[in-house]
Amino acid sequence: MKISIIGAAGTLGTCTAFTLATEKIAEEIVMIDINRNVLMGHALDMALATAGRGVVIRPGEYQDMSNSDVVIMVASMPGKPGTPPDEVIKENIPVINEAAKNIARFCPEAVVITASNPADSLNYAMYLRSNLDRKKVIGYTMNDTLRFRMAIANALGVKSSDVDGLAIGEHARALAYLFSSVRVKGLPVSINEDLKQQIRRDVPGMLLTFVSLQTGRTMGWTSAVGLADMVSLIRADAGKVVPCSVVLKGEYGYERFSMSVPVVLGQGGIRQILNWELAADEKEELNRAAASLKASAKMVN
Fold it and tell me: Given 171, 177, 226, 289, which residue is catalytic?
């Protein structure tokens, strides 16, 4: 498998490249970034660190994406603290346009994973600009679900590895917590309303705690592991259900914007968009996310 990473010299790009290489998910990784010297340094360092693992890591330009199976888009113009989300979107549309144009030119058959934030709106922009099939343009939103599962584990006093369940909606902002999907060791559990409210506070609290550290970096390792898992599912054609942002065409009653929903991943990207029946409170939360993303989509258009 050949994977190209756009924005590969930053925190998320380097973490993702290293994780893909050490887990032997790809045979070739092309790292692309405008910060050429930083990129070269990371590529040389990682090539040596992963010698003997059967993977070639190299710096490249857009034309080197040719024949990529997967392109991971992590490049962005990060907004300063307090910058309104709409302003961040506006600043990043040119970045997405440039990447999408080159993806369409050099590797139009690739699956594209948009991990640049805000992921839903920028994934929608990627879809519009690249003109790829919507099931090949996937927004990365897995971190919301990872935080949801950890909050459940903490509330119930169980191991996070034993917890399943999805958080969907608008990445990191307006989430629908699917308590109806929660399983512990494969078995459904009943969570009372007080615990639900605690979990709803704890999930965004985890992100706020990280942001409050003011390190100037993103959650690179968390996202890298999640991205590597997604690529593994695509490569193995595993047919596993995960949350991803995808452009909707009637699912859940929405259309013409990208939002995180349950999907089945496999070869070629999204094999199926699952239209689950939601509990009343889950549907209400999803409606709030949809209203926010619909407004952002107008600006993207």
Answer: 171
